[in-house]
Write a structure and sequence with these properties.
The chain is α+β, with helices and mostly antiparallel strands. The chain has two helices and nine strands; from the N terminus they run αββββββαβββ. The strands form two sheets. Strands 3, 4, 5, 7 and 8 form a five-stranded antiparallel beta sheet that branches. Strands 6-2-1-9 form a four-stranded antiparallel beta sheet, with no helix packed on it. Strand 1 and strand 2 form a beta hairpin.
């Protein structure tokens, strides 16, 4: 009986493995945060937005629309169509220009002059689609963070 049972068990295990559907395709909510904010001589800002793909498959990020608030003041809208492909469980950075509101510009200048940190909030949406197949979807982003001046790099916060 044991001689018959062992080959039967092996055959069952092989059949089970052969019927598996392959790697799991998990799509998770992405996140976005500010990696760096640089102030140009004309007062405009350059925002390096870090987009994190937590999915088990590569995703293409087709649209970004995020309201930026700094120090409790509305700074402006980060908006772009980057067509940025990010590998599974990885991140990439897209640089977005921003013409900040006058209030945000003054607040940031004061923060940099005082060498202090600045809180920020991002609220809006990222539009993404799996690179292999699937439908595009808007993902809601609500993220808060803090930026600090970078020593030796005037006008740069990370």
């Amino acid at each position: 009986m044991a001689r018959l049972f062992t080959p039967l068990l092996c055959a069952f295990c092989l059949l089970l493995v052969a019927c598996s559907s392959g790697p799991v395709r998990r799509i998770s909510e992405p996140t976005a945060s500010i990696q760096q904010l640089s102030v140009a001589a004309d007062g405009s800002w350059s925002v390096d937005l870090r987009v994190q793909n937590y999915s088990s498959i590569a995703m293409r990020f087709d649209a970004v629309r995020l309201e930026l608030t700094t120090g409790g003041e509305t700074a402006g809208t980060l908006q772009a169509t980057p067509q940025l492909s990010i590998a599974q469980e990885s991140a990439d950075v897209v640089t977005l220009p921003l013409t900040p509101t006058a209030t945000a510009r003054i607040l940031l200048a004061d923060t940099l002059a005082g060498g202090r940190s600045l809180s920020y909030t991002l609220e809006g949406e990222l539009n993404a689609v799996p690179t292999d197949r699937g439908r595009a979807r808007d993902y809601r982003i609500e993220r808060s963070g803090v930026l600090s001046p970078v020593p030796g790099l005037p006008g740069v916060l990370r």
